[in-house]
């Protein structure tokens, strides 16, 4: 009696699952990683799951470091990261990874200066000297010379940085390392670094709160966060010498500018900071999905590639309103070429629609 | 009068099976705690081994924390945890003892319940809310009202010198003091209430004032319990993470001045663990956990010893 009841219950569950999933079996795809693209990844997944009964995607925003760890350990089918994997980490998993860029993000400088209504401009030198603690007052001649119209007060500069390990810090310090040899030698690039000066705030919201509460503060936050919260953001001088304020187009332009140096067979782990192009915002970066070159399960691999292709084509339309810059459309053929190489037992699983 | 004869013991045969099971169950429950402690210690020590091997004792007294160059020294965090907790105790002890004495000795009966409940409600507020309150209310008040006075009066001492940027050791200490106040005051209140009325009556009969009665008859009688209450508060202050990281400034520097930013051990772990990728970085964070664990055990053992000595001294009264 007991057994038959349990059996009936199991059968009922199986039936209802089958009814929901249609006649095909539902393919479960798990991913984990970066928190920065979480907003758009969740939107994509909801839309895609609703439109495709045969697949059930799932992404957990546990941080880039955790994403790389879980992807390398094989506990998830795909990863997400804001900082590309290091060569040593790629070698450790036998090179079995593709970095696929999905959207672009940027880091902006925000500040709290009473009585200054103009948008401030920073050159790479000024920005790095401020974060190195060598420019300590807002009325420093080097700031004034590029901001002639602003009436800069005689006030101490309070630097605010992220205290938690973060892809935002990685992009920002990577930019500073590129434009300043002193920064590269004394601090370097990383998700957590040894900041020469300043206060640490936890998360974008922590930095924002500290900047807003501290007169004379300057900090850096993620572009989409600053846009949604309507914070004052500085114009940054790019490689061509033009001061550019961060915008969706200016960030996408960074990828377009960087494509000149990439070539179709790139592994996409390229830095977009200080990229070429007059309209380029210089502190921009890709965020990547991590896919395996070789999967064990053909139906999983096929569904995953199908999804990623949808995301980087149709999905890009969602980017701007959520505060992300879409990848340039010139890039999608290169991504397609990479997706077509993903295989199971040496056989590619996908050849486009 | 002879003692009443105790009831004959119950027939053992009926309950011995059940008793054995019961005894085994509670023994197992009690054994879990020391086993967990041991497991925690071993796990942390294993996790910390790469940094222990690499840096040895230097980890404890150097102050460079550079994940890029893979150099780790935790002195600022260790000091920050201790200093912010001591500041918290300095503020919270007089305040919470005052609350406890008022509620037990002086407050009108109808006020006791509501005030006691309000104090206990402080313990129910999530620490992230304390942190937000610290950023948006406490720090601006400190900046505009408190610190100018402190600097003017005590600015000559190294403890209140220098530039106040908002997030600081002082802000962290004050937030912590509010957070541990309910723990100290509720326990202290219960302890003071347990002092027999004969103590107070005896002191008053000798002509003592209310103040003298409390100070010389009531508090010494229950000093062991009050020390216990303080230890409970200290334990909470040492481990508090979220509220501290939101106001302490998260700066890897050793400063004498309370107006300067600092760091704490728990805050460092919470901040960096999620994105730490290299073995040495993870291991350094595990070693911070280990140090925090050892400090907590040491502080608690020291306090136990203190309680034991005090109760022995006053045990006869």
Q: How would you characterize this protein structure?
A:
- The complex is a heterodimer of chains A (353) and B (317).
- Chain A has helices spanning 2-21, 38-51, 64-73, 87-92, 124-131, 141-146, 167-179, 181-186, 203-213, 223-228, 248-259, 298-312, 332-339; strands spanning 27-33, 55-60, 78-81, 98-112, 121-122, 158-162, 199-201, 217-222, 235-237, 243-244, 284-291, 325-326, 343-344, 347-348.
- The termini of chain A are far apart.
- Chain A folds into 2 domains: 6-104 and 285-348, Periplasmic binding protein-like II (D-Maltodextrin-Binding Protein, domain 2), CATH 3.40.190; 107-253, Periplasmic binding protein-like II (D-Maltodextrin-Binding Protein, domain 2).
- In chain A, strand 9 and strand 10 (243-244) form a beta hairpin.
- Chain A is built from 13 helices and 14 strands.
- With 353 residues, chain A is of the alpha/beta class.
- Chain B has a single domain (76-314), classed as MetI-like (MetI-like fold, Orthogonal Bundle), CATH 1.10.3720.
- Chain B is 74% helix and 1% strand.
- Chain B has a two-stranded antiparallel sheet.
- In chain B, helix 4 (109-122) packs across helix 6 (169-193).
- The interface between A and B is medium-sized, with 34 and 33 residues.
